[in-house]
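I have been asked to look over a protein record a colleague put together. Thanks in advance; the entry in question is below.
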Amino acid sequence: MAKEEFDKSKTMIFPREVAIGHEVLEKTAELCDRLPVGNHPLVIYDPITKKIAGDKAIEILDSNGYEVSRFQCERGAVMYEVKRAISYAKECNSDFLMGVGGGSVIDVGKLAASRSNLPYISVPTSASHDGIASPRASIKDKQGSKILQLSNESETPLAVLADTSVIYKAPYRMLASGCGDSISNLTAVKDWELGKKLKNEYLSSYAVALAKTAAILIIEGADFIRPGLEESAWIVTKALIVSGVSMSVARSSRPASGAEHMFSHMLDRLVPGKALHGEQCGIGAIMMMYLHGGDWKMIRDTLRKIGAPTTAKEIGIPKRTIVEALMHAHEVRPERYTILGNRGLTKEAAENLATATGVI
């Protein structure tokens, strides 16, 4: 009998370098020198992050022989800015892109680099969600946020440079939001496991382990996550990068995005700009873990300890809107099986869930 061939294969693309720590922004040129990126960067920032870190990064690159072009993002994470950045990168004959900023700048730069087939370096100035190192970009349209998967060798940032001396000075609310995004991996993973069990969906045990690790970093470090403490930025940024890598392993957002993210994206449609993405995901995770029959109180208590919101009132969203978002969350990604099933929740079930967990 002929021996059966083992024909499984998998390609995983990770950031080549990740630098996290105090004043690592000073090493911008050193990092670029070690990477195959050429000499003509396009540095992307917004009016705020330009002052926080953009000018410094440009100064360091300029003084080390790099021919830097500059691009200011004015309208946030929208396709208009992505197209502008693509056009300007081509006009400047840029070799690589560097996004210096929060989630919007990082996502615009990431997608522009991907569609220009250019390397990308992520330089976050805040740690509000796991887009820092993920293979996806969240771009807003009239219906809220649209998650776009990157599809070429720029699939993940070539490098991540996260200066904790910059990140911890951002509004603490953003750091707490990053905690909500990371801890929500716990319910995302449960949804993925449910999809595997009921729909025979592909599941990567390696991606699952990484996603859980990101959440555990937040849970175990909760006592050290507080305003004005640089160590907080270290813990949260590390968790967000691990979460981003889990998506690279999975080649999808599945290990870090389940029903809790659908709930968040539905809120974006109903009340856009009302709360931060990670805040909504954290609250969503409390409720989805309740549905899974898991330790939802641990998620709630961890978020409370950190100072992240756990109720509708704390994020300024009406109770009826929470209920509506729960009823329609399954419509966001109908192809992705979660604890919400294919039909979602009835109004009564949604009200009971939000009430039982103290969200409303």
About this structure: The radius of gyration is 20 Å.
